[in-house]
Predict the 3D structure of the following.
Amino acid sequence: MIWVIGGTKDSRDFLEKFIKYDNNIIVSTATEYGAKLIENLPIKTSSEKMDKGAMLKFVDDNKITKIIDTSHPYAFEVSKNAMEVAEEKNIEYFRFEREEIDILPKKYKNFKDIESLIKYVENLKGNILVTLGSNNVPLFRGLKNLSDIYFRILPRWDMVKKCEDNNILPKNIIAMQGPFTENMNIAMMEQFNIKYLITKKTGDTGGEREKVSACDKLDVEIIYLEKKEIIYKNCYKDIDILIKNLIQ
C-alpha cells in the first residue's frame, strides 16, 4: 500500500490525479479538517498526529511500500521523521515541494524562529495581522500589545476556542477560509488598520503572492517566519513529473 502524507491542498491536487493510476492508497492527516479536504475521493484516510514511533507502526500495520510526502512546507518534523522511517524500513520516499515565489515585498523582515519573531512583535506600534495558523496562537498570549494583534484562522470551533483560551478577544479573531485574493487582503487590512502582516513563505498555493501585492499597496511590513532547512530525498516540484516517476 502507498502512504500519502497529506492534509494540504498539494495533497488533494496530487491525489485527484494519482488515483487514476493507483488507488491502493492510505492518506494520513494530522487533523480531521485535513481529511475533509479529500473526503470525496475513494481512498482510505487516517486522522492522527504521529511521531516517529507511530509512523513506524503505521508502516507495519498498513504494509506500506512507498511514502509520498505532500505535507505542509513548514511541517519539518513530519518530513524528517518520514524520511528516517523510509530508510529504516527500506521503502521508497518521494517528496512534493511547492514552488517558492520569486518576488519580495517592499518592506519585510525574516526570522528564523518563532521566539525571535515574538520578541520583535512585542515592541511594535500599530495593528498586526497574524496568519501563521492556530498552532502558534498560544505563543502570543503574554504579549503586552495583544489587543493590537489580529489572528486570521480557519473557521473551525476548536481553532476559535484556542484563540479564546489564550486571552484573544472575539474582535481580534478573523475566522475565514483562504487563500485570499489581493483585493480581499487589502479590504481586510484596511478594515483593521493593519501595519504589519506576520506570515509564512507558502508560495502561490498559500496565497503568498496576493499577500505581498496587497501589503505593497498599503505600505504594510511583512514579517516572515522562515522554514527550517531540510534536504529532501526524491524531491519534485511538479506533480505530473512526480506521478510519471511513480507509475513507470
